[in-house]
Amino acid sequence: MSTPHNAAQKGDFASTVLMPGDPLRAKFIAETFLEDAKLVTSVRGMLGYTGTYKGVPVSVMGSGMGMPSMGIYAYELYHFYGVEAILRVGSAGGIHPDLKLKDLVAGMGACTNSAFAKQYDFVGTIAPIADFELLCEAKHQAERLGLAMKVGNLYSSDTFYGEGPGADGWRKMGVLAVEMEACALYLTAAQAGKKALAICTISDILGTDQSCTAAEREQSFTDMMEVALKTAAALK
Q1: Is 71 helix (H, G, I), strand (E, B) or coil?
Q2: How are beta strands 149-156 and 104-112 bridged, if at all?
Q3: Largest CA distance in the chain
Q4: Which DSSP state fits 190?
Q5: What's 35's DSSP letter?
Q6: pLDDT value at position 165?
Q7: Per-residue pLDDT tens for 152-203?
C-alpha cells in the first residue's frame, strides 16, 4: 500500500513516529539514534525511516513546513499506516521572555491564525490540545535527563514572513513560541482518535538577531530528540 506522498507499505511504520519538519533532521535522527534504521519512503524528498530505540520499534519522518503539509502526512500515517502516536520534534521562535536559544518547549495547546479547523464545520471554535499521556511522559523523560522543558501554549502560524502586528499580543497571553505545524497535528490526531504532541527547540528569539544556523537546526537539537525517543520507547 502506498499513497501519492508515501511509498511505504503497510507495516513499514512503527506505531509511534517522530516528525521533524526537516527531512534531513529525520535522516540525522535515524542515523544517530536508531538501530537497524531502514529507509521506508523518500517520495518528494520527504524521508521516512523505521528502526529501533532501546529495543522498541520507532519511526521518524519529515513533515515539511506548514499546516497543509503536516496535515497530509499525519493524516496518512494515522489512517493508512496504523500509526497511533506522532511526536513533532521541530524548531520554534521563542516569544516568552524566559526563553533562550535551544531551550525546550512542549505544546500543551496550539493557538493559530489558520483556517485548518474550518474543514470540520464547527459552529464554535475548537481548542487543539496535546495528548495528556504523551505530554506527561515527555515532561517526565525531560526531568530524568536533567532538562528544563517549559510547557504551555504554542502559536501555529500560517505565515513565516508576516505583515501583521507581531507577537506582542500572543506574548501577553502567555504563549511560549511560534511554529507552523502543531495545530494541524493536534486537530488531525483528534479527528483520527490518535495521540499527538509537539516538542520544539527554540531556534530563534523573535524580535532579536539571535538565531541558530541551518546546520544547528538539523543536527544539534539532540536534547529534544532524546526526550521524544525516550517518550516513544516508554509508550505501552
Answers
A1: helix
A2: parallel
A3: 48
A4: H
A5: E
A6: 67
A7: 999 999 999 876 667 888 999 999 999 999 999 999 999 999 999 999 999 9
3-class SS string, 100-117: CCCCEEEEEEEEECCCHH
- Nearest Cα neighbor of 107 from 206, 201, 234 is 201
Q: Report helix, strand or coil for 149.
A: strand
pLDDT of residue 236: 66
Going by C-alpha positions, the residue among 149, 137, 136 that lies closest to residue 106 is: 149
In this prediction, residue 107 carries a pLDDT of 98
Distance CA 153, CA 178 (A): 9
131 belongs to the catalytic site: no
**Residue 163: predicted pLDDT:** 67
| Residue keyed to cell 518547549 | 105
User: 3-state DSSP call for residue 95?
Assistant: coil
- Where are the alpha helices (H) located in 54-166, listed in sequence order? 67-80, 132-144
Residue count of the chain = 236
Percent of the chain with pLDDT strictly greater than 70: 98
The one catalytic residue in 103, 204, 209, 223 is 204
pTM above 0.90, yes or no: yes
- Residue 100 identity (one-letter amino acid): K
